Amino acid sequence: MLTQLPRLYAITDARLMPGATLFSKVEAALKGGCGWVQYRDKTNDSRRRLQDANKLRELCEHYQAKLIVNDDPQLALASRAHGVHLGQGDTPLAEARRLLGTSAIIGSTCHASVDLAIAGHAQGADYLAFGRFFASTTKPGASPASLTLISQIKHQLAVPVVVIGGITLQNAPQLLQAGADCLAVCEGLFSAENVESQATAFRQLFLD
């Protein structure tokens, strides 16, 4: 079980970073201090997805960061990624653990549910992800979560908490004050004109 998460967890998006900009923007985020990158690609192009994941893993390892694959334990295994993030409709956590081994990082989406968090913790999730906390263009239909949920989970469960959903430099301090361990950011990072500087600014929030 993880005892500590990176402060900044970047999530890729094909709309914001098409083609080769996937790699240039991820590298900029890594240079700015991003500790984990989640490769999120919902297409069915398995060959390209494996190529992307392999290249991203190499980039992450160069900067002493971790690559997490969204939804797909088989891709995580094939690409030798450091872990997988599972939604509620994805591969069961126990099955992913058997496939990837005890050293893999496995995260679980809990939306805004304490019950899902308790279940994920019981199944051995290394971190629990909650959100959306603010309006999100990446997942506009996601159910909103309240800031009080963070402190509630931190009080009940000894597991790192990742927060996601519409996070910006302006609203992130609210989440940190509520007890969030890690900011998972997509558009708030990768839509920036200077991704490296934006990542550095997010990291600075933890030092203020």
As residue ranges, the low-confidence spans are none
CATH topology-level fold name: TIM Barrel
Helix share, percent: 25-40%
Number of domains: 1
Please count the helical segments: 9
Q: What's the mean pLDDT score?
A: 95
Radius of gyration: 16 Å
Largest sheet: 8 strands, parallel, barrel
Portion in strands: 15-25%
Full CATH superfamily name? Aldolase class I
CATH structural class? Alpha Beta
What is the β-strand count? 8
Walk me through the structure.
- The chain is an alpha/beta fold.
- The chain has a single domain, classed as Aldolase class I (TIM Barrel, Alpha-Beta Barrel), CATH 3.20.20.70.
- 40% of the residues lie in helices and 17% in strands.
- The protein has nine helices and eight strands.
- An eight-stranded parallel β-barrel has the order 1-2-3-4-5-6-7-8, surrounded by eight helices.
- Helix 2 packs across helix 3.
- The longest helix is centred in the N-terminal third of the chain and has 17 residues.
- The chain is globular, with a radius of gyration of 16 Å.
- It starts with 7 loop residues before the first strand and ends with a helix.
Primary descriptors:
208 residues; alpha/beta; TIM Barrel; eight-stranded parallel β-barrel; 8 strands; 40% helix; globular
Topology:
Elements: E1 8-11, H1 21-31, E2 36-39, H2 46-62, E3 66-70, H3 73-79, E4 83-86, H4 93-100, E5 105-111, H5 114-122, E6 127-130, H6 147-156, E7 161-164, H7 172-178, E8 182-185, H8 187-190, H9 195-204
Parallel strand pairs: 1-2, 1-8, 2-3, 3-4, 4-5, 5-6, 6-7, 7-8
